[in-house]
């Protein structure tokens, strides 16, 4: 039988951005496997569902799932993963709704995972042209080749994650000598069905932020190899709508960093981050303070973010 790939895309109040991603995916090549797009609307209060139903009502390759409320990145994607597991899909591609694809990106990933199923795979991710963090740094020739992520690195002394290669122009510097990744970004990754049976789904305690880092650490503990495939390429349309300094970022990153620290860090780092959290209670921004309080009171998942 031909292997089946579940392509899980999550939408919340961004129907046009999501349509651009889906339409870009339709232009990709997929020899050797079939796919089904599992498009999940995460409780959008706008007309996203109506737009999707009108657009895809005659397209059998798109399945639309709807939630009554916003379940966060974690809960929304878990809904799609559970659907894929129930319907016996062989492989899963989890992808953000703000990316564009090289036509051969999925074939490149599938070729690897077909032969090494104990892999946790990601493509090379560029900024989409014009969506770089530092637009004045680059020439016109550089656009479309500015790296957003080619793997993830954790600073284990301070518990901060960063994307390997971010803001660098890709000149092939990572193609032959790519450092090992500590985590795979949730922006786009591919795994086998067995991955979720071995590792589990996203931990819903996180709701949003660091859930991909947590999943990566559990994958490593379960014997999976984290790999970025440099000749599999996508472009991230980075909107920055919930970036550093926003209340959303302050709350979930502060709280979830504590959750991740207490699970995975060494004792010395746990103590240092604990002291830092006490300091945040006095001098942190309002939603950082709330994130600290909610962690120690066990208010996880959506927590105080209502």
From TrEMBL:
GO terms for molecular function: glycosyltransferase activity. Keywords: Glycosyltransferase, Transferase. It comes from the Bacteria. InterPro entries: Glyco_trans_2-like, Nucleotide-diphossugar_trans. Residues 7-147 form the Glycosyltransferase 2-like domain. Belongs to the glycosyltransferase 2 family. This is Glycosyltransferase 2-like domain-containing protein. It comes from Candidatus Shapirobacteria bacterium CG06_land_8_20_14_3_00_40_12.
């Amino acid at each position: 039988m031909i292997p089946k790939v579940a392509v899980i895309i999550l939408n919340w109040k961004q129907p046009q951005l999501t349509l651009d991603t889906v339409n870009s995916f339709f232009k990709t090549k997929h020899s050797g496997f079939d796919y089904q797009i599992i498009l999940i609307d995460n409780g959008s209060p706008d007309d996203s569902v109506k737009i999707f139903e009108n657009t895809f009502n005659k397209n059998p390759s798109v399945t639309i799932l709807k939630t009554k409320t916003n379940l966060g990145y974690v809960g929304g994607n878990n809904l799609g993963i559970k659907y894929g597991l129930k319907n016996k899909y062989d492989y899963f591609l989890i992808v953000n709704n703000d990316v564009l694809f090289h036509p051969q990106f999925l074939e490149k990933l599938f070729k690897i995972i077909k032969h090494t199923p104990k892999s946790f795979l990601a493509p090379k991710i560029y900024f989409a042209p014009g969506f770089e963090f530092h637009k004045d740094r680059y020439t016109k020739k550089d656009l479309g080749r500015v790296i957003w992520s080619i793997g993830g690195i954790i600073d284990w002394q301070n518990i901060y994650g960063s994307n390997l290669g971010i803001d660098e122009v890709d000149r092939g510097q990572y193609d032959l000598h790519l450092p090992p990744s500590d985590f795979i970004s949730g922006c786009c990754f591919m795994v086998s069905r067995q991955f979720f049976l071995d590792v589990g789904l996203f931990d819903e305690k996180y709701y949003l932020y660091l859930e991909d880092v947590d999943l990566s650490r559990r994958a490593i503990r379960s014997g999976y190899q984290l790999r970025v495939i440099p000749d599999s390429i996508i472009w991230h349309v980075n909107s920055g709508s919930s970036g550093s300094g926003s209340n959303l970022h302050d709350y979930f990153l502060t709280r979830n960093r504590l959750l991740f620290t207490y699970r995975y860090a060494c004792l010395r780092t746990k103590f240092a981050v604990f002291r830092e959290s006490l300091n945040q209670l006095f001098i942190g921004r309002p939603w950082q303070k709330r994130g600290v309080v909610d962690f120690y009171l066990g208010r996880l998942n959506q927590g105080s973010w209502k």
